[in-house]
Backbone:
């Protein structure tokens, strides 16, 4: 094995916190995606920044790939060891280091999950808003620039990571950003690292921006005869600048899957699931304005979830939509892809997508964070059928091309990983080469998550 | 002259849109700062991206520095030609290329000023929120990551530039970002360019995020016996998460200067100037909550500016504070410096600053965007007195050190330019070297605004 020396050195260094057992390796070859790769050659479980530094140093010495691992919930094969090497599993770096209520931020290790952080925050009146559905680690969310249902109001990880500690490929440990609310001193390295998918370094500490829990929250489920009406309602709501906290689209198939999985009983047609945050009166006012727009587009029903437990059930159902869809057709595998288009193009993009899906031999569902112009297609593919597999691939590629044609991006939140590398040139042109130059500068040996993100890698 | 060949080639290329006349050169050596430098050797006035590309190509061929120039309002000598070379004045690239009301964005050339853009937007119901006071160009604001009075609500240029066209040092023209509201595809090069102060490339086109004009706006002026009470009110307001549109501090000296310059008649004590954006009811509610906090900290008076003309006068007075301070003591020169600290440290930072200022032979004023923890000290310095000049320098350095000691940043919005280069190591540590690596990768000849931003440059 080419990386034997690195594996031996890591084993000596970490003892039983370095594993080459088949079960552990295979657990780190799992991915919520069609993209597959052989397992890594070893998995390290560091507990401190110093240990991460030494792991990277050892790997650099032996030219061995290093791949970060959070909760394994990424959707484009980000954390797969395409070129072998060592996976750094951050599950033991899962401490919340500080919660600063006065300055509304938290300092966490990368292995803390968003649910763990929010659990700790309950008594403070604060919360961490970014919510991709899965209970991902905050390090993984930062590395993939995750977003989700609340991004329409609170932004993505780009907007909610204030500062980082990062171990670079040459073992340097840098700190980017400060706890101040803004700064104009130098290149925005925090922003450069967020979304870099582990190709520039490994994050070992994150300073996150927290939000005040809203004084009042209300949520509603709104059913439409057609998906077009639901989308028109969403587009108008955003264009009227109603400050939505969430505005989610589920098509009829999506609702059927959610009903089956979460024991809900929504009518099986297109729905918007919405939430409002604010004061008692502003929430009421925003909800009324939204209600008027929904009515204009002939919403069939409009049900309020005013009780906390109803809202929790509602959003749990939405969060579980991915697994609901996975489970909906047991003989099939769910294949999910996402794009994001300018909000004015959302109707056209979804209509074109539905038209294209008519050609497929499988059924599919469209769900999305429509307030951001971001939507997902979940395809129910019989993977034993090579025709269906090819069709699914073609549909995903058609989605990406549609996004580019409409001035959008080939991924709103899933990222590039391995799955969407082929679209980088088309989306970024020569700017993709600039990404490659930055990568080669900071990682000339190409040990940090090789095979991902940049050209010729 | 070492750059004669470049100057000759540029003159042939641009004709009378390339100037080496003394008046033009000296106009491009002006700076709102103590930092001085000799004028550039030539000034180019391009009209298209293609011309900017050719200018950069010619300069690269002859190893000649290239410095971007917007409105010349930066405060740390950003656009001074420290190593000679050619200034690229964007005043003829001042077209608004597109206003997309549905997607709430605008595409502009870099020489458009923020006031020009907002003038064009008047009929659309949208506005561009970032407001540094000066009528800076949008290109300059992006290059320096400007912010100002409304950043507490709408963010800085980091948050409001969606996409860029940039001419790189080697003449490549790249496009970063898309018109979609979010993306997770690749390194955030838009974020890398915003705030890079012309050291990585020249921006030739900007796609900006627009905001809906609020349905209702109200503003108030709130006087306090002591500056501590004003700061405590601001800190509590932010910690209570009241969604302020602006919350500005002026100390007694600042108010006196504003009164003299803008013919206002505010009592000469510490003030908060606040503004609320929202619906009629939310604005009323927010203002009431703010009023309760101000009362708790014994505000002396609380005057509403409900009429548009009163608000305009109020914010014009605040915007003119910089010039008001410049004019306040005619025998002195105003020297302005800014820092940004975590909001919880704001009271301590300002108290320490005031204590330090007691040692100075000149008077000074503290004004600030206190909702962000960002404040400015304006010192009235007799520049003919070398002792005062030294004292001013020492005060500014003390400010920067105070910011770092309190977990903040040496500039919230003025940037680094030439004036604050010496603090980069202290603030960023090894991350500053990473900035240097990126710079050398994208500009190996070091022609883009040399002498700024990065180490050993």
Residues:
């Amino acid at each position: 094995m080419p990386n034997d020396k690195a594996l031996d050195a890591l084993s000596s260094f970490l003892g039983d916190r370095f594993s080459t057992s088949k079960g552990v390796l295979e657990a780190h070859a799992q991915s919520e995606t069609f993209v597959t790769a052989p397992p890594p050659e070893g998995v390290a479980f560091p507990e401190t920044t110093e240990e991460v530094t030494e792991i990277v140093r050892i790997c650099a010495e032996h030219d061995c790939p290093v791949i970060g691992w959070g909760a394994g919930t990424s959707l484009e094969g980000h954390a797969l060891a395409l070129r072998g090497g060592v996976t750094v599993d951050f599950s033991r770096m899962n401490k919340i280091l500080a919660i600063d209520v006065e300055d509304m931020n938290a300092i966490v290790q990368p292995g803390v999950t968003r649910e763990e952080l929010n659990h700790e925050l309950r008594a403070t009146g604060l919360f961490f808003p970014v919510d991709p559905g899965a209970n991902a680690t905050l390090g993984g969310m930062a590395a993939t620039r995750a977003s989700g249902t609340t991004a329409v109001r609170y932004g993505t990880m780009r907007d909610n990571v204030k500062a980082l500690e990062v171990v670079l490929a040459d073992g340097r440990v840098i700190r980017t950003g400060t706890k101040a609310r803004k700064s104009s001193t130098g290149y925005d390295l925090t922003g450069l690292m967020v979304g870099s998918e582990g190709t520039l370094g490994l994050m070992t500490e994150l300073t996150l921006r927290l939000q005040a829990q809203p004084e009042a929250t209300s949520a509603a489920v709104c059913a439409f005869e057609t998906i077009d009406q639901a989308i028109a309602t969403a587009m108008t709501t955003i264009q009227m600048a109603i400050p939505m906290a969430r505005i989610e689209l589920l098509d009829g198939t999506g609702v059927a899957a959610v009903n089956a999985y979460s024991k809900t009983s929504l009518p099986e047609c297109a729905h918007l699931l919405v939430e409002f945050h604010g004061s008692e009166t502003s929430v009421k006012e925003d909800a009324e304005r939204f209600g008027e727009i929904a009515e204009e587009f002939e919403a069939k029903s409009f049900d309020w979830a005013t009780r906390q437990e109803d809202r929790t059930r509602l959003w749990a159902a939405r969060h579980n939509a991915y697994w609901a869809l996975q489970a909906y057709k047991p003989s099939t595998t769910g294949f999910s892809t996402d794009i994001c288009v300018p909000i004015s193009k959302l109707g056209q993009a979804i209509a074109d997508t539905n038209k294209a899906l008519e050609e497929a031999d499988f059924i599919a569902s469209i769900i999305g964070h429509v307030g951001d112009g971001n939507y997902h297609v979940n395809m129910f593919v019989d993977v034993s059928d090579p025709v269906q597999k090819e069709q699914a691939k073609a549909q995903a590629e058609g989605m990406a091309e549609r996004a580019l044609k409409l001035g959008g991006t080939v991924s709103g939140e899933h990222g590039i990983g391995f799955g969407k590398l082929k679209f980088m040139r088309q989306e970024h042109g020569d700017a993709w080469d600039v990404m490659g130059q930055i990568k080669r500068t900071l990682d000339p040996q190409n040990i940090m998550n090789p095979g991902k993100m940049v050209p010729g890698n």
Q: What stands out?
A: Chain B has four domains: 4-91, 93-212, 216-322, 329-405. Chain B is about 35% helix and 20% strand. The radius of gyration of chain B is 22 Å. Residues 336 and 378 of chain B are 4 Å apart (CA to CA).
